[in-house]
């Protein structure tokens, strides 16, 4: 898969790396069970700090998209990962739009709760 | 032999496939085998009168003789193995001329193997000549240690003899304007990485290792070791991680950090994708070299195809090769704009 980071962007590099993986999962170019390059490999590849990559991978693990195994690197979680990746991207888009409108965190959560109770 | 002295300063376009460096490396691979064969022949002739009719040719535990064969057969086999190996490794070294790194390793390996074999055969001949009768001949383990030690020394000495890897011609043009590119901003950096698997090689590895099990049960585990180890190695090397980034194209086994094959951006004239048929195009799977092309071929289908500045082709079978090729073209452009790389 393609990792690309923009050094001039205000988005932290780790988040940019996480976004690359999410996008690749969502469009199916990376499949469940596939192994991503280790944080060290990817860091030398892109010329960034290893901890930057690890921050990105950690974020993906929190989202349930990636499993980090000591010594074995990063493996894409099995199951309907592509759907989960799309959902995560949607959630981030929701938050970004809400922030742009000036909504508080509570208001965003309220919005989601209302949507949940409506179904 | 002139080319040996002249080095790579020749005016005949030293970077050509059969340039001085290539000749030198073929000589490094071949000459030690020929010399070892000559030494073996000379020693044989000088001790022939004292050799038993059926000299000991195999030595078991403690260096005691436990296998015997005819005198002529011993000499014939020894010379055939040494000269055959020299010819084989010389040919392979010549064919690997588009990938200088592995070529050097192969030439040095050939030199070292010739020394080890020559040493051991000579030790066997001398042991037979010394012994009262063939069955009392012994070759102590120290001879094996000496053989491998001297092989390592010669290999080490041959490494610099191979000469520097030929550099890309300075005027090498980059990818043509029509080649696929990946749009990349000036502040952007990108890397592409993917595991390329093989369905055939893991099966071969597993079968080889499995064949070791009955051998181990019936003949003892030490004799099964080669099968088990080579099976595990084949399975281990069956998957490759392919990386395209600011350093060029890198291929490593997916489960181990080496051996590593790297094609730096400066050596890439243009990257593209093609479809590979392992049997028709490369005559098999693995690390292949045919005239004009080499590469890592683990399956059929989509592959990155690099046109190198030397004019030959380097191929790696991997999915989504088009993206990797486009990225390599972009990065190769960038490396040529800023000679220090991006």
Automatic annotation (TrEMBL), chain A:
Keyword Transmembrane helix listed = no
Q: Where is the HTH gntR-type domain?
A: 11-79
Q: Which domain of life does the protein's organism represent?
A: Bacteria
User: Which keywords describe this protein according to UniProt?
Assistant: DNA-binding, Transcription, Transcription regulation
List the GO molecular function terms.
Answer: DNA binding; DNA-binding transcription factor activity
**Pfam families linked:** GntR
Q: Does the keyword Lipid biosynthesis apply?
A: no
Q: Which InterPro entries match?
A: Tscrpt_reg_HTH_GntR (IPR000524), WH-like_DNA-bd_sf (IPR036388), WH_DNA-bd_sf (IPR036390)
Q: What protein name applies here?
A: GntR family transcriptional regulator
TrEMBL record, chain B:
Organism, per UniProt?
Streptomyces mashuensis
Is this entry keyworded Transmembrane helix? yes
What is the protein name given in its UniProt record?
DUF1648 domain-containing protein
Domain of life from the UniProt record: Bacteria
Q: Which residues cross the membrane?
A: 26-47, 73-94, 106-129, 225-244
Keywords associated with the record? Membrane, Transmembrane, Transmembrane helix
């Amino acid at each position: 898969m393609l990792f690309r980071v923009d050094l001039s962007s205000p988005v932290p590099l780790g988040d940019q790396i996480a976004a690359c993986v999410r996008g690749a999962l969502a469009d199916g170019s990376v499949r469940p069970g596939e192994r991503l390059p280790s944080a060290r490999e990817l860091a030398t590849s892109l010329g960034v700090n290893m901890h930057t990559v690890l921050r990105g991978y950690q974020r993906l693990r929190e989202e349930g998209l990636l499993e980090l195994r000591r010594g074995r690197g990063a493996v894409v979680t099995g199951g309907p990962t592509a759907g989960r990746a799309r959902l995560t991207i949607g959630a981030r888009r929701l938050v970004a739009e809400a922030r742009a409108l000036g909504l508080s965190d509570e208001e965003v959560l309220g919005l989601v709760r209302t949507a949940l109770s409506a179904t | 032999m002139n080319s040996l002295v002249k080095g790579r300063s020749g005016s005949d376009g030293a970077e050509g496939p059969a340039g001085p460096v290539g000749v030198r490396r073929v000589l490094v691979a071949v000459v030690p085998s020929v010399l070892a064969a000559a030494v073996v022949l000379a020693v044989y002739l000088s001790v022939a009168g004292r050799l038993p009719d059926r000299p000991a040719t195999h030595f078991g535990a403690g260096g005691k003789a436990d296998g015997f064969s005819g005198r002529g057969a011993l000499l014939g086999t020894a010379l055939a193995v040494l000269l055959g190996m020299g010819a084989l490794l010389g040919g392979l070294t010549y064919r690997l001329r588009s990938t200088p790194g592995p070529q050097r390793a192969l030439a040095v390996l050939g030199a070292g193997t010739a020394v080890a074999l020559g040493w051991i055969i000579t030790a066997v001949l001398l042991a037979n000549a010394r012994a009262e009768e063939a069955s009392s001949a012994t070759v102590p383990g120290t001879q094996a240690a000496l053989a491998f030690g001297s092989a390592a020394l010669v290999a080490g000495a041959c490494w610099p003899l191979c000469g520097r890897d030929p550099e890309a011609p300075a005027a090498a043009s980059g990818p043509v304007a029509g080649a696929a590119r990946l749009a990349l901003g000036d502040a952007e950096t990108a890397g592409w990485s993917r595991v390329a698997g093989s369905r055939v090689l893991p099966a071969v590895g597993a079968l080889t290792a499995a064949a070791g099990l009955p051998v181990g049960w019936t003949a003892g585990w030490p004799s099964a070791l080669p099968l088990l180890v080579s099976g595990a190695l084949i399975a281990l090397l069956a998957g490759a991680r392919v990386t395209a980034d600011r350093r060029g194209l890198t291929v490593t086994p997916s489960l181990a950090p080496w051996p590593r094959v790297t094609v730096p951006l400066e050596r890439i004239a243009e990257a593209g994708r093609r479809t590979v048929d392992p049997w028709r195009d490369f005559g098999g799977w693995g690390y292949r070299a045919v005239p004009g092309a080499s590469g890592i071929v683990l399956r059929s289908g989509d592959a990155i195809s690099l046109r190198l500045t030397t004019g030959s082709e380097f191929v790696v079978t991997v999915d989504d090769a088009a993206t990797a090729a486009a990225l390599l073209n972009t990065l190769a452009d960038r490396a040529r704009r800023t000679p220090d790389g991006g």
